[in-house]
Amino acid sequence: xxxxxxxxxxxxxxxxxxxxxxxxxxxxxxxxxxIIKILNINSGVMEFVLDNKFHTVRYIENKTSEMxxxxxxxxxxxNMNSHLDEIVYKNSGGSETGNVQLNLYSQIPGKVVSINxxxxxxxxxxxxxxxxxxxxxxVTVKSHKDGVVKTIKIKEGNSVNKNxxxxxxx
Amino acid sequence: xxxxxxxxxxxxxxxxxxxxxxxxxxxxxxxxxxIIKILNINSGVMEFVLDNKFHTVRYIENKTSEMxxxxxxxxxxxNMNSHLDEIVYKNSGGSETGNVQLNLYSQIPGKVVSINxxxxxxxxxxxxxxxxxxxxxxVTVKSHKDGVVKTIKIKEGNSVNKNxxxxxxx
Amino acid sequence: MIEKVLVAxxxxxxxxxxxxxxxxxxxxVAVYSNEDRNSMHVKNATEAxxxxxxxxxxSYLNQEKILDVILSSGADAIHPGYGFLSENSEFAxxxxxxxINFIGPSGKSMDLCGDKMRCKAAMLEAKVPTVPGSPGLxxxxxxxxxxxxxxxxxxxxxxxxxxxxxxxxxxTNDKELHEGFKSVTGESISAVGKxxxxxxxxxxxTRHIEYQFARDNQGNAVHIFExxxxxxxxxxKLIEQTPSPIMDEETRVRIGDLVVNAAHAxxxxxxxxxxxxxxxxxxxxxxxxxxxxxxxxxxxxxxSGLDLVKxxxxxxxxxxxxxxxxxxxxxxxxIECRINAEDTFLDFAPxxxxxxxxxxxxxxxxxxxxxxxSGATVSAFYDxxxxxxVTWGQTFDESRLRMLNALDDFYIQGVETSIPLYKTILNSxxxxxxxxxxxxxxxxxxxxxxxxxxxxxxxxxxIPAIASAxxxxxxxxxxxxxxxxxxxxxxxKMDGA
Amino acid sequence: MIEKVLVAxxxxxxxxxxxxxxxxxxxxVAVYSNEDRNSMHVKNATEAxxxxxxxxxxSYLNQEKILDVILSSGADAIHPGYGFLSENSEFAxxxxxxxINFIGPSGKSMDLCGDKMRCKAAMLEAKVPTVPGSPGLxxxxxxxxxxxxxxxxxxxxxxxxxxxxxxxxxxTNDKELHEGFKSVTGESISAVGKxxxxxxxxxxxTRHIEYQFARDNQGNAVHIFExxxxxxxxxxKLIEQTPSPIMDEETRVRIGDLVVNAAHAxxxxxxxxxxxxxxxxxxxxxxxxxxxxxxxxxxxxxxSGLDLVKxxxxxxxxxxxxxxxxxxxxxxxxIECRINAEDTFLDFAPxxxxxxxxxxxxxxxxxxxxxxxSGATVSAFYDxxxxxxVTWGQTFDESRLRMLNALDDFYIQGVETSIPLYKTILNSxxxxxxxxxxxxxxxxxxxxxxxxxxxxxxxxxxIPAIASAxxxxxxxxxxxxxxxxxxxxxxxKMDGA
Lengths: 170, 170, 497, 497
Fold this sequence. Notes:
By secondary structure, chain A is mainly beta. Helices cover 9% and strands 58% of the residues of chain A.
């Protein structure tokens, strides 16, 4: 299998070579061998020692080609696929990620104070689309790209959760 | 219903008078009224405010006539029954608790180092029945009453858990 | 003697106040909103009273409701904490009227501290320097020019109706001043229909340095050293430390004497803080008095050995301050990091929600004041301060390294926190060298540096991250395929994922 | 310079050593047994190596295995903590031989400290008083009588083959001595076939007072004040405090000077503790040197401001002690309670098992060194110390009240603890007045008083306990009968009970 760790451009081959014992594995990552000793598994949290260094990982999300987890306190994503290089190539062309880029998400929970860019209006990347209020603070949600606001998914005075869709911007 | 709290000789009448709201109750305990406001219930732990004082209770055991819980850090038992006075009377006669008094329990977990009173031997209250080892310490288990050791339920070198039966003493 | 204190607050400060009360055998009364039914301060109090809805106006700011609880619970004193009603002179007077011991200054003194113009006047009379500028509004551009030339350029033209950076111009000579006067006037009129301008000396690379002080009913006053709180975002303090790296003993005593004068000048009682700007040329300018216990009081507790809440209670009981200025000695170094629930990269936007798991740091020289516990919730209704992590060391570097260590150990699941930013700051040469100023974050591009640190961190985790992915697949696969009894237990656990 | 330390220990002390190492940028290597795969010290180290089975002999006492890990991990130093290999001179020499920096005294000095007869001789030469008595075995009753009359009655006749109270007689005059000599000889012969008796002064109402000291490779030595550790059970310390309530400055300096002499006399390097008995008449008698970091070192850290592990590392690096005796000042009061997993009423029998939930106390002047976390396990294989709760105060009473408060806040689910006993002790007039002695628990019948306190506590909880029972029935019943949607969520939660 091939793996790509968030923020790294490197595509790495990795596989399990041997199950040494009930809780120990020999793995090969980037042409070098490592020993993993599993210490504990509990509700999506795994603790293991890799080459004599303790790690704790909390798995958040696991899709076919992407996995998200918090490892030693840092949240990160790993892309994986037997043909990862091709996928990376495609993604840079935008074909697979197009849908993601359509939606503008709320990155905080809050109450909608105002909608500053109505449906049909043209926006530039960084333009304010709406204003939310949370913890006595007003926070602006800005367009993530140049485009036209296709639909607005929120209403003034209503509450939104983190990761709710604010608008579709084409 | 009648209640008796561990270490208190008093038998107390208590009942729920009224459910004031979803989380508030008016109760009568010992002829005086109290307000209970439930704050939180989670895996056997209940948090409530009684007459404006916060309490947390973790329920451990609930039998027909006895309930055990940890309230505000103290473990205690409450006996309850609609005819508690009669039961208390019976218990003092020993008829219901006879069986409990037969068994000598281990009050710690440990390894059996030696058995000092074999089957058939006569013991006085306080005599050593066996010696256990735990955390590098030897601890003696003493007879809880005068009697004859009917059966020994443990073996030298084996481990016992807390509350395992060590012996039956008649 | 105070026997029962109502703590009119929530979160870490309510808990902190109760700790001292409890240790002194003083009963405590908590109040809580709907939102706070599972909050720690409710559990810690001798008594707890529900006071209303989540919104502060309906609970923690509801003066009548809180007064009701004081009276029905039989509390004889009230501790307001910080925020909420702590600097509300009307409420302080309401307490006085009802013979309830308000732990803080009198309503009258609080009023004076809160009115910046009157307070500034009182300070000038007491010979405490304030930021040079017009004594009030300027009449016209000519008036402004005269003042500018008196105090020296650069100066700031400020519309009193402005705010948040609007209606402000920094000008460096007479020509710029006249142009600026016109545009500020124009902006102000177009925004609010009127204009009123003041002139103030513009200070660059200023440090925020404040003094803890105490004054008792008998009029004895002491200062309890300075705190430097220059590292801020949006005028909110993030990191505080004491002693300040630019302070020497001569200056400490000289400004400390001014602070004592300031406390006398406003007839202050109980604990307060005098805030100063320190200009790059070494001059100190009084800004304001905070008439309450400050968030950052623990660093003063560490270096003075005092329990400041106890001192508040003593003074409120009418006792004289139990020590003399000369008996106070500074011992070591302390740093506080305010652990906020916020997303540094979203312009410090709040991050709220449940915190299923938290690991609170501890160790030699570490103190953590927090309302967090595993299962707590960070509410969107109140402010974003979840915890105050405070460390002490014999040397500055010891306190700094202990802080970095404690930040590493602080694990808060579920919300974004300011912890990563603090690691970047505390590791920076500029912080180590004490190059502090209120524009520290911007001046040294700390957010960009944080982003680089996090990117590097993720890159460094390449091997363990891939190992984690491999192991997930392994346990996921084996769950379906094998019935190996030894692994069964683990597989069952894994199903909880 | 030490760059990587293997910590040959587990539990709270391993974690505590690692904290200082981490803060100083020194890498750490943990070792762990099968039993400790989920233990905190494994998580905190830079590297962690599995070293064998649960039994200490197969893991933490396995010298070869630990040496292997030192060599393969590239650690250049070893910190032994306390217990296990910490006072094993053979192991210290093994490290020396392998050019590994053993953080502690040399094997030779450790040997001398461990041999009580040789150590006593060295002390007598250095004019450090030891408990008066026969220099070795006595020949016969006449010899014993002569010594008894030299040192004064009462004396103790002790068979060297005895132990645990057997083969000991306390005698108060010549007649009793002759009778006692016969019976001790008889008991010893009937028990082990031989007899060998020593005579020692019998001291009543003694206090256990010890001194922290440090000595560097250059031969500089300092003492870092005393600790009083009189509250014990079965010769194990339960509560320690500093300063000792009976100590005045003159005595502190006088005994402190003796401690420095003692350190020189055994050519000690690194940190150690000199233990004394203090008789009721005020005399101090040296007992022994503990050649390691003590469990109770945090109270010394609190009052001295020093990080003692850092000082150990500095000395191990060959650096001179970075301060002079005259620069050390005692600041405030500190108390430590050893939070043991044990059942006070079962003669302190161990209590082991999982700890699903733990709440660790915090606050001003509170420090808790522990390996506990929610989900930890107290193992039957190792000792019963789960946590050290340490508080500091400006006054003794402040430290005591903070301790009571922190004990209240310390919630450990799943095992019996010594916490209730400490509350009874710390609330007692005898403790408040400093009437300490090694038989404190027995002398003041503390276990009986604890029992009374607990009974009273349960009686006081009558109303909330009955309320709890009422509410349980209510929610239990409604779970079955009603389908009320509002309560549904709670009922689901209750099913988890």
